[in-house]
Write a structure and sequence with these properties.
369 residues, alpha/beta, 3-stranded antiparallel β-sheet, PyrdxlP-dep_Trfase, Cysteine desulfurase family protein
Length: 369
């Protein structure tokens, strides 16, 4: 099997699985319980919170655990009102949350053909009494990395009270997510994007705005912003996975195989368009569109050879991509976009095999069409 859909989800590290199983077997008490067994589970959470806080350079009290990055994004957006500013290429959990939020108006920033936000448009739109800004750090479909530090400087120099939320789901563990250097007030993340468990995420909230944040689930408020019994084993497994991801120090290797696969495509296939930029783009993501094919058909042909990719974001479920429309992709490529997303387990030999199957599949599809 060649798994090239890591932006959708990653395989859990063995270390994270072992940590999870051990915690389920030995530390399964409710962390909110007052007895000593419950305190052991609570200590696992505290230990995990401390580590994650150290990674993002925050206080431990500023790290909150949620059920997913989608919940984190919803909590962040639905806690505020007024006039919001966001991009046209946000993840669906941000895009849809804004539709059901209390904001009087949501303004969508312009971007270029690679998805990078127009900073001049940002400066212009800030004049509209903006109270809240939400920007995706690394786009989940095309991989462009926004200059969050520069965006923050522009926003805060205009009005330091504007709240900046960043969706760092595809960023944490892979690129700099130091909340102080980035200058963000809130940051969402998800464990299953860095080889941790699914249905486990988090939200950084700067101390001075914590009181303004509203939970979207009512109950015991175990995490203050998120109700429900805290899942100590999953939280612990998330911290273990994040540590392993960082210690793997694999970014340069991932960049190497990304560039290698780009060169294979250029040398082997006609009439394609590489959507993901070479500069300021996550090495983990490569979005490529092929003319005169249907992405879903190509996806299933690759699947027959146990090569797994995505036709855009896993959250789009095969619908036309809002992201590709936002970057004004040429119509002839719109139906043929495939996202390849890498992990440290992928080798150049895997990519050699993949390009052979990819080339053959595209030729067959084009013959039929």
């Amino acid at each position: 099997m060649i798994y090239l859909d890591n932006a959708a989800t990653t395989k859990m590290y063995d270390e994270a699985i072992k940590a999870y199983v051990k915690a389920q077997e030995e530390t399964f008490a409710n962390p909110s319980a007052l007895h000593s067994f419950g305190m052991e589970a609570e200590n696992l959470i505290k230990k995990s919170r401390k580590y994650i806080a150290s990674v993002i350079s925050s206080a431990e009290s500023e790290v909150f655990f949620t059920k997913s990055a989608s919940e984190s994004n919803n909590i962040a957006i639905k806690s505020f009102d007024g006039v919001a500013l966001t991009s046209k290429i946000e993840h669906s959990s941000v895009y849809e949350a804004f539709k059901k939020s209390d904001f009087d108006k949501v303004i969508y920033l312009d971007n270029d053909k690679y998805g990078f936000i127009d900073l001049n448009d940002l400066k212009k739109q800030l004049k509209n009494d903006i109270s809240f800004v939400s920007i995706i750090y690394v786009n989940n479909e095309i991989g462009c990395i926004q200059d969050i530090r520069k965006i923050s400087e522009i926003i805060k120099s205009y009005n330091k009270n504007i709240i900046l939320h960043v969706d760092a789901t595809q960023a944490l563990g892979k690129i700099n997510c130091d909340v102080k250097s980035l200058g963000v007030d809130m940051m969402s993340f998800s464990a299953h994007k860095f080889h941790g468990p699914k249905q486990m995420g988090g939200l950084y909230i700067k101390k001075d705005i914590t009181a303004k944040v509203k939970p979207i689930l009512d109950g015991g408020y175990q995490e203050i912003i998120s109700s429900g019994t805290s899942d100590a084993p999953s939280i612990y497994a998330m911290a273990i996975a994040l540590r392993k991801q960082i210690e793997a120090n694999e970014y340069e290797y991932i960049k190497e195989i990304n560039l290698y696969f780009r060169s294979l495509i250029k040398d082997s296939i006609d009439d394609y368009y590489i959507i993901s930029p070479e500069e300021n783009c996550s090495a983990y993501i490569l979005d490529v569109a092929f003319a005169n094919i249907k992405a879903e058909v190509l996806l299933h042909m690759l699947e027959e050879e146990e090569i797994y990719v995505s036709s855009g974001s896993a959250c789009s479920k095969g619908d036309d991509s809002r992201i590709l429309s936002a970057i004004d992709l040429d119509e002839k490529y719109m139906d043929g976009a495939i996202r390849f997303s890498f992990s440290g387990e992928i080798s150049k030999e895997d990519l050699d095999f993949t390009i052979d199957i990819l080339k053959r599949s595209i030729e067959l599809i084009r013959m039929v069409i």
